[in-house]
Amino acid sequence: MRYLAYHVSLFATVPSIVNAALNAGFFDQSHMTRHFIKTFGLTPTQWKMINIKR
What is the CATH number of the domain that holds 43? Predict the structure, then answer.
């Protein structure tokens, strides 16, 4: 969960989901996406579209 919280904070500063995943300590984007969906019920892109563009 700590990695996901860090990843979410990276969305505002890192335009690439791949780079955000790697910077948050995940092995690759799919690794982070699996954990993200399990926790939030959305893909990172879906979450970003809902929460960052406000």
Answer: 1.10.10.60
Global pTM exceeds 0.90: no
Which tens digits make up the pLDDT trace of 7-53? Answer: 666 666 667 888 878 877 888 889 988 988 998 899 888 887 887 76
Number of domains making up the chain:
1
**Domain range for 7:** 2-51
User: For 42, what's the count of Cα atoms within 13 Å in the CB-facing half-sphere?
Assistant: 11
Q: What contacts 24+ positions apart, CB below 8 Å, involve 29-33?
A: 32/3, 32/4, 32/7
